[in-house]
Amino acid sequence: MKKNLVVLLMFVFIFSLAGTAFAAVTGNPFVDVPAKHWSYDAVNKLAVAGIIEGVDGKFNGDKTITRYEMAVIVAKALAKEEKADPEQKALIEKLSVEYKTELQNMGMRLSTVEEKVNRVNFYGYLGLRFDYGKGNAFSSEGIQTEAVHVDTYTTYKINDKSTVVLENVFHNNMRSIGATAGSLLDGMDTASYPNGWNQLAHSVFVNTALDQVKFTVGQFPMIPAYGMVLSSEDFQGSRVKGVKASYGIGQVTATVFSGKTFGLYGLGTEYAEAGKYNLAELDFAVSKKTNIKAAYHDAKTANYGEVGFDTKLTNDLVFEAAAAKNDQDVDNNKSYYAQLKYKQAMFWAVPHSYDLFVGYRKIPANATLNGGSNSDFNGNYTYNVKGAIIGAHYVPDKMVMLTTWYSFGKKIDTNKDQNAFRAQLDFFF
Q: Which pTM value belongs to this model?
């Protein structure tokens, strides 16, 4: 098995070198934005209008820059959005959609962006949640939970290439009703969570670079590929401990990880104990509208393959689908999901923006470590479940987002009904 993994890692690295410049992969913020990308023209127009000045106080239109550098420019444009006319605001919004992942991960308040001023930054979010679940999979009276969740990050910028990050996740069940009541992140009976705050996770890691290879070292959150095998019940990702390296050239980004993961379910790890975990992932930007991702997960007692794609059907409509399978001769070792999303709620930039989504998934316990849900705290309401989910996000104001969704389906192992509703209000800071 180890020999196969080494061969696969070598293949991934060699294949990544074969890529040619085409379109940057949003999974790696340090990939160059191709010279003919529409972003340059948009930024030039904003620069001529005096909305932005570029990196280090200037913008060199003849110089190729990375997605991260472009995101810095877009963030500065967002900070001066009130000075823009309607046409310029439309350009800024289009740019913010293109670089939304980099903007989210920059670790700063976008309303007062000064990327190189402070070495220390503090950011995160506070979530207020209400759950209601009904069905034989829960308890006769169903469940009801009101909870608070806080995820905080403190970053220290050592230099232009290296940053130290400290993350802490806290959770409090303010009220839980039902024999198996939980607010997704606990998923246990209320006796396991007495009154008061519970520290659910912590991370300490360093982001750094060596030439064109980007490294993350330590204990940190991670969502490989489309999150079918390893994801999280919060926005950030499942906790892993080890070393991750990413290298991108042209339209291809290769990522490898070696270490351990704190998986919650499945065959690969034990609850609350770190299990062996290695990863090889390949992301390929087929075009500006379509991406393909594939990953091989080498876990404690099973190996998993994962593949998926996302594509823009129109400017406002995105389709995403993925599947995963482990190599064990057991029942229900395959999983899949598909989702259609209309519009994009941009809490970091655009008040009153929104999106609507609908999806279907089948995520058996044997087909995942703790994956299949990587946003909106879907958590154990979609794990070991086959069924549909429908929901929406709405941004009443900058850095505030309202989320609602309803999932309905059946438990895979028992074929019993499981339905759940979530209303959640998140404040980002």
A: 0.69
SS3 363: coil
Do residue 16 and residue 146 come from a single domain? yes
Only one residue has tokens 């006769």, namely: 140
Q: CA-to-CA distance for 209 and 311, rounded, in angstroms?
A: 30
Question: Residues 6 or more apart from 342 whose CB is under 8 A from it?
Answer: 316, 317, 355, 356, 357
Amino acid at the residue 260: K
Confidence band of 257 (pLDDT split at 50, 70, 90): very high
78 with 46, same domain: the answer is: yes
Please tell me whether residues 208 and 84 are part of one structural domain: no
Same domain? For 24 and 62 the reply is no
CA distance 175 to 178: 10
Give the whole-angstrom CA distance, residue 274 versus residue 276.
7
Q: What is the DSSP secondary structure assignment for residue 377, as one 8-state letter?
A: T
Instruction: List, in sequence order, every residue forming a beta bridge with 198; answer none if it has no partner.
Output: 171
- Pairwise CA distance, residues 405 & 402, whole Å: 10
CA separation for the pair 151, 202 (Å, rounded): 9
The pLDDT value given to residue 91? 87
User: Same domain for 55 and 141?
Assistant: no
Residue 85 and residue 112 in one domain: no
Q: Which residues contact 323 (CB under 8 A, 6 or more apart)?
A: 228, 306, 307, 308, 334, 335, 336, 337
219 in Cβ contact with 240 (< 8 Å): yes
323 shares a domain with 220: yes
Lowest average pLDDT, out of 54-68, 109-123, 198-212, 385-399, goes to 109-123
CATH number at residue 320: 2.40.160.10
Strands 290-298 and 120-134 turn out to be unpaired
Separation CA 372–CA 409 (nearest Å) = 15
CB 225 within 8 A of CB 293: yes
SS3 content of the chain, % helix, strand, coil (to 5): 15, 45, 40
Q: Which of 101, 121, 155 is the last residue of a domain?
A: 101
Give the domain range for residue 250.
2-29+105-428
